[in-house]
Specification:
The structure holds two protein chains of two kinds. By secondary structure, chain A is an alpha/beta fold. Chain A has 18 helices and eleven strands. Classes of the chains: A alpha/beta, B alpha+beta. At the A-B interface, α14, α15 and α16 of A face α2 of B.
């Protein structure tokens, strides 16, 4: 094995002849009849009615497939399922399906809601079977109100056909699916705030431990999975774990929906194996807009650190490679930024998003994100100083890993890596710190930029500490 | 017992202990804001971060891995942990800010960010001087701030309810107040609204924060965001002296701190006593503060004319000496000491054991800190063997008496007596207020000190004897009171704060505690009582009454003592 994963070789195999499975090119697939004619709900029948797997066997099969969560963290789905405590008839257990995608650059789940909702519903029923769960909450982003109705109709159809509800397919397995519209905040997509939101509370993330598998919805064992993750489950049942594991990157296998945005000719959602080269994905999306040069790529939604194009050309889209490159797979929502992009403005815009969406529970995130945006706005408008960059990096240190959830990390990463990887652009917009000693960000000197008054051997700044 | 190590020192702990509470209990200070021992743990202020780790275990032998020196190797958590939510485990090693530079820096970082949007208006903030944010920012915060922008602006004056005002800019969103309404009073009247640095606690639209315990949120607010409407901008905390005592509001015996400046009680706050009121008290018990300052009966009177104390005592003694039958009313508002001496006086003049007017009203309380009994010492007088006034009998009993002694109560207002019943009787009254409706009918008026001016004992409805301490001066200097206030035999203006003017006579009430005035009368009757202090009175009462056994001032201390025996039915 090579020392580096950044070889520039695709791990997606013969991706040009890849046939789509999550979003196959079938007209009106969202209708239950069409879905059934195309082999829909056969996985559910095979497992629940024909006993292809028992619950433990299904969990093991998913584990063997190597499926990793598609919601951003990339944790092994089968392993997550196996964290559920043994069934206690006294205690209800829940599945929460997270369809609250709202990170800038991420727009893949909506395709499933729109074009193939029954695949997700079948996956939910299978997951409930694997973990012996009787209720699932499908939490759909509130702004997707059209999809809430659309998915609700699909759910009603599935109930009518006996794929959900009491005694599914005539067996004694029953499960309910409740569609819930999200409460309209980015933080609702954080798994523990999602639980609070489902419970009707303010969507503040919960402190862990206890983890949701021990105390989730209404303090009962709960598993939270992403929409796309669950949509992969029927495919694994139908075609086998080894089929799934053979697609794309070895350690991060399977089909994945790439949401491509930014300065490309054909932005959109594309289904391909994992391990695609970023350059191939640029080709898929029709190349750079106006034939311009691409400067940076954000590989997995706005919170993942931006990559310089020089690094990105050697990258493939899988967790290990992207980690080595200094970013992460996230939700596979790629944004290509071309040479016209001002990285400072871009970072400022991203900082604005996180400032706006911070729930306000933890101090570092609540007040740190606002401070960050103010600093970036000052630099962006040409009023900043080079010392502000060091202060921003300090702020990243003060926020990362110091909060209940990962929103502070998500806010800090683009800023930290934006500055680290594009520092030349940031410095070009900054005024030189013009007085003695003031480039030391820790000195806490004034903002005026007025030269220091030197009095003997003591350095004074006008106004002192602001 | 399992052990853990904090800053290099090893302690034993009980399984289930949280690290922060354990540190606080063992004298290791860790700064914190959102944590409160009576509330759930959200770990949202992120101030109590510590470095913690557990011993590295060998996977096969399940034994701790040792380093070269034979000490267990420690697996530190990858991030700093909020100690409030961290469970202590066997062998855990904790480094606080006193031991670890990294932790001290993280805490300073957090305070810097916390102060980014917090207005630095300490000079006009009511919380200044007792503000956890102020104290901890000085102690653990960075020396300055690197924030060079305009702070976020939020509403400055939101009248959340009748008693609580919110300054949203000062709020650091610790959620103690919202958790209080959700978990303690369960009224759910407050929630956090808005998002990020715009959020602050608020009621639902159109709702008011009229929780009967709403002002408890001002006690637990770690900044000056929530303030008591009645106390706002009235005094700086360092101008007041703070005296631990017991509230005379109701039968619960709520432990309080009395905040006094210039002989006026300006504020009452709850004092922690886990056996009685935990950390809380109802709003109504705070709002009685003005009754200690206003409409006070001041100066003795005989036949409606002001006189001096000696003349008044003489008049009372003469009336008692010359009268045939004497009827004595004790008081559930008075202390055990005063009532005990009153009982002795009654015996000395041949009267029956005093009666008291019972105020218990079933269902008028809330089952928690607002008692069904508005009087603070019903149990105390019951335990002295006093019986409650029987409405059917009292007319005849008064009729048979020549002289009626009413101690610290108002039988006319209570509907027990009226002017006609007292026609031709000599009435000796010990009032606290000029609003006392029996006052116009009294022949001898001997104003009596209230609970904030005396030393004494209340027995609450659960049979707990608790001690009162004087918080403000009365005009007649009394050595016991002075000693108890810490004045000794020196100058009164040396107690309290430098801003206090104890010598300001106009704010002192001219009254006497029962344990001073009753012996003065007894002495004139030739039955001297020979007590030096109320402490001696209580010791004798506890000795002589099985139901008060053990209720000495020494035993009561600051938190009181639960009496073992029940009150005997009188």
């Amino acid at each position: 094995m090579a020392d580096t994963l950044l070889t520039g070789e695709s791990k997606a195999g013969d991706w040009r002849s890849y046939e789509r499975v999550i979003l196959p090119p079938v007209k009106d697939l969202h209708q239950i009849d069409v879905y059934e004619q195309n082999g829909g709900y056969s996985a559910l029948k095979a497992v629940v009615r024909d006993g292809k797997f028992d619950p433990k066997g299904l969990t093991d099969e998913v584990k063997a497939s190597g499926l990793r969560g598609r919601g951003g963290a990339g944790f092994s789905t089968g392993l997550k399922w196996s964290f559920m405590p043994p069934v206690d008839p006294e205690k209800p257990r829940y599945l929460a399906c997270n369809g609250d995608e709202s990170e800038p650059g991420t727009f893949k789940d909506r395709q499933i809601f729109e074009y193939n909702p029954h695949l997700m519903i079948e996956g939910i029923a299978l997951a409930c079977y694997a973990m012996t769960i009787k209720t699932c909450y499908l939490y759909i982003r509130g702004e997707y109100w059209e999809y809430v109705d659309h998915v609700q109709k699909a759910v009603n159809d599935a109930y009518a056909k006996g794929y959900l509800g009491k005694n599914i397919l005539g067996t004694d397995f029953s499960t309910d699916l409740v569609v819930q519209a999200g409460a309209g905040a980015y933080i609702c997509g954080e798994e523990t705030s999602l639980l609070n939101s489902v419970e009707g509370k303010r969507a503040y993330p919960r402190i862990k431990p206890p983890f949701p598998a021990q105390k989730g919805l209404w303090s009962m064992p709960t598993t939270i999975n992403n929409v796309e993750t669950l949509a992969d489950v029927p495919l694994i049942v139908n075609r086998g774990a080894s089929w799934f594991a053979g697609i794309g990157s070895e350690k991060h296998p399977g089909p994945v929906l790439y949401g491509i945005s930014g300065h490309v000719n054909r932005p959109g959602v594309y289904e391909y194996p994992t391990g695609m080269k970023i350059t191939d994905l640029l080709e898929v999306a029709g190349g750079a807009r106006g034939g311009k040069k691409i400067k940076a790529v954000i590989p997995g939604g706005s919170s993942t650190p931006p990559l310089r194009w020089e690094t990105a050309v050697d990258c493939t889209m899988d967790a290990e490679t992207l980690r080595e490159a200094g970013s992460s797979m996230g939700t596979a929502g790629l944004a290509f930024l071309d040479e016209t992009v001002d990285m400072v403005s871009w970072t400022r815009r991203i900082a604005h998003f996180y400032h706006h969406e911070s729930c306000g529970q933890c101090t570092p995130c609540r007040d740190g994100t606002g401070w960050m945006e103010k600093l970036l706005a000052r630099i962006d408008s040409g009023e900043g100083y080079t010392r502000d960059l060091d202060l921003l990096l300090d702020l990243c240190d003060q926020m990362e890993g110091r909060t209940v959830c990962a929103l502070a990390d998500a806010a800090a990463w683009p800023v930290r890596w934006g500055i680290k990887r594009f520092r030349d652009e940031f410095e070009a917009k900054c005024k030189a710190t013009s007085f003695q000693g003031a480039d030391l960000a820790t000195a806490g000197d004034g903002a005026s930029g007025t030269p220091a008054l030197v009095d003997g051997d003591k350095t004074l700044t006008p106004g002192g500490t602001p | 017992m399992p052990t853990l190590t904090i800053d290099g020192k090893t302690y034993e702990f009980e399984p289930g202990d949280k690290v922060l509470q354990f540190c606080l209990d063992h004298g290791v200070e860790v700064p914190h804001f959102c944590y409160h021992p009576a509330l759930s743990v959200p770990a949202n202020c992120r101030q109590c971060l510590v470095k913690a780790g557990t011993p590295m275990m060998d996977r096969e032998t399940r034994e701790p891995v040792l380093d070269d020196d034979g000490n267990p190797k420690i697996n530190y958590f990858p991030k700093l942990m909020p100690s409030c939510a961290l469970d202590a485990t066997e062998g855990m090693v904790v480094h606080t800010q006193q031991d670890s530079e990294e932790v001290a820096e993280a805490q300073a970082d957090n305070l810097e960010i916390m102060l980014v949007n917090h207005p630095l208006d300490c000079p006009i903030c009511d919380q200044a001087g007792q503000c956890p944010l102020q104290i901890q920012a000085y102690k653990y915060g960075p020396e300055g701030s690197r924030f060079e922008f305009e702070k976020v602006h939020k509403p400055k004056r939101i009248q959340l309810g009748p008693n609580v005002v919110l300054d949203a800019e000062r709020c650091i969103n610790c959620t103690r107040c919202t958790r209080f309404t959700a978990e303690v009073t369960e009224t759910h009247q407050l929630t956090i609204i808005n998002r990020g640095d715009k959020n602050h606690p608020m009621t639902a639209p159109g709702e008011t924060f009229d929780d009967a315990y709403s002002m408890c949120t001002t006690d637990i607010c770690p900044v000056g965001a929530l303030t008591e409407d009645y106390f706002r901008f009235k005094a700086r905390v360092w101008e007041m002296s703070k005296t631990p005592s017991v509230s005379d509001f109701g039968g619960k015996g709520i432990n309080v701190d009395l905040w006094v400046r210039n002989n006026e009680v300006l504020r009452i706050t709850p004092r922690e006593n886990l056996e009685v009121n935990e950390y809380w008290m109802p709003d109504a018990a705070r709002l009685v503060y003005s009754t200690y300052n206003e409409n006070r009966a001041s100066g003795p009177m005989v036949a409606g004319r002001p006189t001096d104390w000696d003349a008044a005592f003489d008049a009372a003694a003469d009336a008692l000496r010359q009268s045939g039958a004497v009827l004595v009313f004790g008081s559930a508002f008075g202390t055990v000491e005063d009532n005990y001496l009153l009982g002795k006086l009654a015996a000395a003049v041949g009267a029956e054991t005093p009666r008291y007017i019972a105020r218990h009203d079933e269902g008028s309380g809330d089952g928690w800190l607002i008692s069904d009994d508005p009087a603070p010492n019903t149990q105390g007088v019951e335990r002295l063997g006093f019986s409650a006034v029987d409405a059917a009998m009292i007319g005849a009993q008064v009729e048979a008496a020549d002289t009626v002694v009413v101690f610290q109560d108002d039988p006319v207002a209570a509907g027990v007596l009226d002017a006609a019943a007292l026609e031709g009787k000599t009435v000796i009254l010990f009032p606290t207020h000029t609003t006392n409706e029996t006052l116009p009918l009294a022949d001898v008026v001997l104003p009596v000190a209230m609970s904030v001016e005396t030393i004494g004992t209340f027995v609450n409805e659960d049979g707990r004897a608790q001690m009162l301490r004087p918080a403000k001066m009365i005009r007649t200097a009394n050595r016991s009171l002075m000693m108890s206030m810490g004045v000794g035999q020196g100058r009164p203006d040396r107690v309290g704060t430098p801003f206090d003017r104890w010598h300001d006579e106009s704010k002192k009430v001219d009254c006497q505690p029962g344990w001073a005035s009753i012996p003065a009368i007894a002495e004139r009757l030739g039955r001297p009582m020979h007590y030096k202090t109320p402490r001696a009175v209580m010791a004798e009462a506890a000795e002589g009454h099985a139901a008060l056994a053990g209720a000495t001032h020494e035993a009561m201390g600051l938190l009181g003592v639960a009496l073992e025996t029940e009150a005997e039915p009188a």
